[in-house]
UniProtKB/TrEMBL annotation, chain A:
It comes from Hypsibius exemplaris. This is V-type proton ATPase proteolipid subunit. Pfam families: ATP-synt_C (PF00137). Belongs to the V-ATPase proteolipid subunit family. GO terms for molecular function: proton-transporting ATPase activity, rotational mechanism.
UniProtKB/TrEMBL annotation, chain B:
It comes from Hypsibius exemplaris (Freshwater tardigrade). InterPro entries: ATPase_proteolipid_c-like_dom, ATPase_proteolipid_csu, ATPase_proteolipid_su_C_euk, F/V-ATP_Csub_sf. This is V-type proton ATPase proteolipid subunit. Belongs to the V-ATPase proteolipid subunit family. It is found in: Membrane; Vacuole membrane. Signal peptide: none annotated. Pfam families: ATP-synt_C. Residues 31-89, 121-180 form the V-ATPase proteolipid subunit C-like domain. SUPFAM superfamilies: F1F0 ATP synthase subunit C.
């Protein structure tokens, strides 16, 4: 597929060239201050950040789970041709991958609850804006953390589960020992969930601080 | 230094200055995220690569499997480095997210300044990329190590030495992340 690779390279080069030319035009015509990433980060609606966080939490987790299931399932079904006894025991590997998707659902629902509770935009004064915008950032970060960690965890569990199935087909005593490696791999998704829950919990404390600053007399 | 923006709510003690912008919190959150995600990728790669090596050698030498779990454990430790830094940055963001106290002075004092946000981002990226590299190294070296140990048992000590040097790379990232976090006061 060298032609597809070449096409992608040309498209990337074209887009980079257009961006650079536009940037140079802006700078040379004295409008350089219009290229403002800080403005972009500040003015994207916090509900947008939170919704993107929720979407990435569930989407990336499910992609990781799917990748793991396809890798492991392929090996189980292939090795099962000569050793059909491995099917029921190796469903454990597939359940480990499914757990990754469940982590994604849990985090998405958690962030959604936070979105409903803390992201009201009735008061757009700078203080509320700081707290509410930070709530949007934190939801976005939490979603990305758990999404990507579950993606990598699912891929790793799939690869190790595939090896476990193939070893189990040769010698039935090996499955339990290689399961230990799978447990270490699934711990990575759990770490991502822990950090996501921490990030979502930060929002409540920050908003308390912001509310106190508003009510405090000058 | 630009003049502070007068808040709409006159009872408030918070102002927005260019040094104390709203987007500083974004970089703090991205520090936490990048710490966990990138070290998670390194740990996942290390676990998967060494795990498939173990599955390969397990058929011929089942008695050596438990000794060969060591690369997996070391890859897991990389994820723990990322978890530790993510928790530290998260707590640091919370404790420094106080609204600005001084309204009359033109210089910003208090509040989550841009510097804090960038320091947190730097801490997260440093442990993240170091953990990613260390996990990659542990994976590749661990796979060769476990396969070689199955064929030549005297290689076990050599494998441990190589893995320790790879692990220490992640530790360097953790050290720099903690040093960057002490810049935030």
């Amino acid at each position: 597929m060298a032609s597809a690779g070449n096409a992608i390279c040309y498209v990337l080069l074209l887009w980079t060239g257009i961006t650079v030319v536009l940037g140079v035009y802006y700078v040379l015509s004295g409008q350089g201050t219009r290229i403002d990433f800080g403005w972009l980060i500040e003015n994207v609606d916090p509900s947008m950040y939170a919704s993107l966080g929720i979407a990435s939490a569930i989407a990336l987790s499910v992609v990781g789970a799917a990748w793991g299931i396809l890798t492991t399932g392929c090996s189980i079904l292939g090795a099962g041709v000569k050793a059909p006894r491995i099917q029921t025991k190796n469903l454990i590997s597939i359940i480990f991958c499914e757990a990754v998707a469940i982590y994604g659902i849990i985090i998405a629902i958690l962030i959604n609850a936070r979105l409903k509770k803390n992201l009201d935009l009735d008061d757009l004064s700078p203080q509320y804006r700081r707290g509410t915008q930070f709530a949007g950032f934190a939801c976005f970060g939490a979603g990305l953390t758990s999404g990507f960690c579950n993606l990598f965890c699912g891929m790793a569990v799939g690869i190790v589960g595939s090896g476990a199935a193939l070893a189990d087909a040769q010698n039935a005593a090996l499955f339990v020992k290689i399961l230990v490696v799978e447990i270490f791999a699934s711990a990575i998704g759990l770490f991502g969930v822990i950090v996501s829950i921490l990030q979502v919990g930060v929002i409540a404390q920050v908003q308390i601080v912001v509310a106190q600053s508003i009510s405090a007399p000058k | 230094m630009a003049t502070p923006i007068v808040p709409i709510n006159l009872n408030s003690t918070d102002t927005l200055t260019p040094d104390n912008a709203v987007y500083a919190g974004f970089f703090g959150v991205m520090g936490t995220t990048s710490a966990m995600v990138l070290t998670g990728l390194g740990a996942a790669y290390g676990t998967a690569k060494s795990g498939s090596g173990i599955a390969g050698m397990a058929v011929s030498k089942p008695e050596l499997i438990m000794k060969s779990i060591i690369p997996i454990v070391m890859a897991g430790i990389i994820a723990i480095y990322g978890l530790v830094v993510a928790v530290i940055i998260s707590q640091s963001v919370t404790s420094h997210f106080t609204p600005q106290i001084e309204v009359t002075k033109l210089s910003a004092s208090g509040g989550y300044t841009n510097t804090f946000g960038f320091c947190h981002l730097g801490a997260g990226l440093s442990v993240g990329f170091c953990g990613l590299a260390a996990g990659y190294a542990i994976g590749v070296a661990g796979e060769s190590g476990v396969r070689g140990t199955a064929m030549q048992p005297r290689l076990f000590v050599g494998m441990i030495l190589v893995l320790i040097f790879a692990e220490v790379l992640g530790l360097y990232g953790l050290i720099i992340a903690l040093i960057l976090d002490t810049n935030v006061k």
